[in-house]
Amino acid sequence: MQALKNKFAASPLLARVLPFAIFLGLTFLQGQFGEASRYWVYLGKTLVGFWLLWRSRPFVAEMKWAFSWEAVVVGVAVCVMWVGLDGLYPKFGQPGAAWNPQTQFGAGSALAWLFTGARVLGSALVVPPLEEVFYRSFVYRYLTKADFLKVPLGTFAWGPLVVTSVVFGFEHYQWLAGILCGFAYQGLVCWKKRLGDAMTAHAITNFLLGVWVVGKGAWGFW
User: Fold this and answer.
1) What is the pLDDT, as a whole number, of residue 99?
2) Whole-structure pTM value
């Protein structure tokens, strides 16, 4: 554990990239060991992601939550856009089976609610700092200048904005919504000149989307 802490302290790049890379790598293991593993691995990667955030937090100064009315507006608007655009554009590839623990483990069962809660809370509290630090703090600034720490968070540059948003978008099956989402969050960073508002907006979007999924039974969004 101390070795990892030392590596984060020695490498600003590693502190911003490794947590996301490990989280993404674990994502590819979901469902590889039977259908139930989709849920157990998600729970495990959420716990690992939280631990990695905790270990890297002292070495990523910009990873601080910030609340503002702009973050709330962007977070809510992105969720509305994400749901509203569904079905209006072609997706790339085929969707996997719907992520629905209520079907897998029995409606209303303890395990079903455990994994449902893990998905909602994980997407709202763990995913935003992991992704915002990687995409908005590291990738965007690195594309602007290799010595990315010398690039202020509020710097605006069209090339990095487009590339980062497109890459972020294609991380999602709903690629168009993902690209627009990337523009919105990066724009918020440039506007507020800090990362915390984008983290908050991202958390609001994911939490509201989770509530929509569970409340409406719209499991296809997961």
Assistant:
1) 87
2) 0.95
